[in-house]
Amino acid sequence: MTQIGSPNRKPTVFLLFFAGVLIAFLCLSVIFTYSSSDPIHAHSRSRSTDTCKCAGNDENPPPGFNLGFDPPVLTFYDDPSFGYTFDTPVKNWDKKRRQWLTLHPSFVSGSEERIFLVTGSQSQPCRNPKGDHFLLRFYRNKVDYSRIHGYDIFYNNVLLDPKMVGCWAKLSAVRAAMLAHPEAEWIWWIDEDAAFTDMDFKVPLERYKDRNFVVHGWPREVYEEKNWLGLNAGSFLVRNCQWSLDFLDAWADMGPQSKNHEKWEKILWKTFKHGADDQTALAYLLVKEKEDNLRSKVHIEIEYYLEGYWVVIKDTLKNITDKYAEIEKREKVLRRRHAELVSEAYAKLWEPHLKDAGYGYGSWRRPFVTHFAGCQPCSGKNNPAFSRESCWEAMDKVLNYADNQVLRNYGFTHPDLSNPSVVTPLSFRH
């Protein structure tokens, strides 16, 4: 047996040392050869390491909401009397919101302009055979718009109050969203049959700094003509504050869950010669409410299509598309491909070229929201003034028009707006 430290061990040690050097040399040769023969991947690996350092580490985490933090401090959520339905009034909401934001500081930055989108539909399958398909596409349209602009969205398809059925159900969803999302300054309701048709445009919140409720319409029609069709409740924004909760309480008091519903039905019919629904009730509040505190906080938006009627819009899309194409042809930067995440930056680049386009009716700017009022895609009980087929054709056209603005960032387009199934790759134009 060879003893430790004996002369017979020297050759063995030398051989082991030589083998180790040889293996190390071979490994280095392989690494060097791979790096030299594949400089692109070698550069990518180097950049990847640097990127990880820049993106943030334990000492410098990337910015964002702290979704995993909720301090063990009692808030309004811990109050047993706090509720989300209209039969549980909420008081001092502004103070409660401020306290919640103080306890959750990661949500404070940008909270004054934060929008939370709410939409919904019925819980049962549609009677119209194409209804569920169209509702899915309408919802996807809203998800696309929300993703592009960093908005959260809630799709409700249950009755949060069993008695607030039909068009009244939106009020329950909006109120619940206000209380569930104290981090949001604005709650934006948009009907299930409305679509965003300008994916770049954003609501100009600076216009509403002193207002708490924004709805599309014509002030003269509402306040002077006392016409309930002078506004449309299919798309509206409500500030997340105590004033708005009180406003919703007054609005909902005319609804079917209220003990005063029969009284309001008679009043609304006498005033507008139309049944009691969310829109006649809203119009009545604005027409009959004499308090400056209400009208001064409501903005009836006429400058752009916060809600645009599809019959007026559907035949303008080709001309608008041609106008945008002409501008793109002249301006190379507008044709540049980019990540979807930075779409807002390119939307700003468009603005100088759209300054003469105008807004709303007669404009060649993309209509912001197109609402298929009267089409009833789920029930199929459309307004007899137009056919079901004309609704379907227009919905295909409008939804594909909006979809093209999204698909562009993925390299595709619908060549035929009447066919939602076919897309073709976009050619890259320098």
Description:
With 430 residues, the chain is of the alpha/beta class. Helices cover 42% and strands 11% of the residues. It contains 15 helices and eleven strands. The strands form three sheets. It has a six-stranded mixed beta sheet, with helices on both faces. Strands 4-9-8 form a three-stranded mixed beta sheet. Strands 10-11 form a two-stranded antiparallel sheet. Helix 4 (131-149) links the parallel strand 1 and strand 2. The chain crosses the membrane at residues 12-34. It is a single-pass type II membrane protein. Residues 317-344 form a coiled coil. It holds the Pfam family Glyco_transf_34.
**Structural class label:** alpha/beta
List SSEs in N-to-C order: HHHEHEHEEEHEHHHHEEHHHHEHEE
SS strand fraction: 5-15%
Question: Which percent bin holds the helix content?
Answer: 40-55%
- According to DSSP, the number of beta strands is 11
Rounded radius of gyration (Å): 30 Å
How far is the N terminus from the C terminus? 80 Å
Overall geometry comes to: globular
Tell me about the biggest sheet? 6 strands, mixed
Layout: helices, strands, pairs:
Elements: H1 10-37, H2 39-55, H3 93-103, E1 115-120, H4 131-149, E2 152-156, H5 169-180, E3 186-190, E4 194-196, E5 213-217, H6 219-224, E6 231-239, H7 242-252, H8 261-272, H9 278-288, H10 292-295, E7 298-301, E8 308-309, H11 310-313, H12 317-330, H13 332-335, H14 343-350, E9 369-371, H15 388-407, E10 412-413, E11 424-425
Parallel strand pairs: 1-2, 1-3, 5-7, 8-9
Antiparallel strand pairs: 3-6, 4-9, 5-6, 10-11
